[in-house]
Amino acid sequence: MKFKKLVLTGAAGRLGSYLREPLSKMCDELLSTDIADDIGTLYPGERYAQADLAKYDEIFPLLEGADMVIHFGAIVDEKPFEELLGPNFVGSYNIWEAGYQHGVRRIVYASSIHAVGMHKKRDFIGTDAPHRPDTFYGLAKCFTEDLGSMYWDKRQLESVHLRILSAAQVNNARALGSWLSYDDLIHLVTRAIDTPSVGFAVIYGVSNNDRAPVDNTKASFLGYRPKDNAEQFAEKVLAETPAPDLNDPAEMLQGGPFAKVDLGQSGIAQMTIVDDRKKT
Questions:
Q1: Distance of alpha carbon 36 from the chain centroid
Q2: CATH of domain 3-270
Q3: What is the pLDDT of residues 153-204, one digit of tens each?
Q4: Cα(107)–Cα(128) distance, integer angstroms
Q5: Helices (H), the chain
Q6: What one-character-per-residue DSSP string does 214-267 give?
Q7: Is 90 exceeded by the pLDDT of residue 216?
């Protein structure tokens, strides 16, 4: 199925860089947007518009004529609440309200494990686990999931919320369970777009890892069947990793380092994420 128009927010980000090309092949027009000045060479059928998610008058016209929005735009770290309020809270409202006003069929949202980050990994939570945010960043994900649920119940605007665990290179022990490969990310987003009916749905963004700490059974109707497995990195990673402190929240809880930092303090600073975004 080929769509007339898709909109991708967060197109200048690392994950957005891997989504642009496959999304451009699914539609006649891909409108990519971000706050950045530009995103490099555009793919066939793609155009770019600079816009601030926190400003409704900049977002509203971009969604005109769109079939679906793939909403990956946000500050992607813990920050003081005041810094996250515009892009991560108000920005989500602006996308949903503009989408509703323009008759958009579905929004695919980059949620996060940090919406449930204070759950224990050993509990093997499902997609129906109650919200337990680990940070203001995670709270924004909870807000947007509830926003999506409300807009489905009250206004029949569909949405799929992808609770991504960690879409980054496997260079630590936590990632052996939490890894989402870029190929599986593309597959996940594709299934969220082309599944005929979704209503309001939540699914974990994680590859087919032997050590995955979450259960996607109740989201199987979306047809997401990941192929990659972080176990291929286990021998090297474990050889370089010291024995874990079993009293450390970063080791025991779903949110990893985000579950340990003080509110408003960077979680990314505690991690070793490689910026390997796709170049155009």
A1: 19
A2: 3.40.50.720
A3: 999 999 999 999 999 999 999 999 999 999 999 999 999 999 999 999 999 9
A4: 19
A5: 14-24, 56-59, 81-84, 91-102, 136-155, 175-178, 182-194, 234-239, 249-252
A6: EE-GGGGGG-------GGGGHHHHHHTSPPP-TT-HHHHBTTGGGGTSPTTS-S
A7: yes
Which value, to the nearest 10 degrees, does the dihedral of the CA atoms of residues 154, 220, 218, 103 take? -10
Contacts of residue 82, defined as CB under 8 A and 6 or more positions apart, other chains included, come to none
* 3-class DSSP state of 164: strand
Query: What residue segments make up the domains of the chain, in order of their start?
Result: 3-270
Strand partners of residue 50: 34
Query: What is d(CA 1, CA 136) in angstroms, rounded to the nearest whole number?
Result: 38
Helix (H) or strand (E) holding 169: none
Say which amino acid occupies 209. Answer: N
Mean pLDDT of the chain: 97
Residue 235 token pair: 């021998």
Residue 18 annotated in active site: no
Per-residue tokens: 39: 């995103």
The string of pLDDT tens digits covering residues 56-89 is 999 999 999 999 999 999 999 999 999 999 999 9
Which candidate in 18, 48, 109, 137 is catalytic?
137
**pLDDT, tens digit, for every residue of 106-156?**
999 999 999 999 999 999 999 999 999 999 999 999 999 999 999 999 999
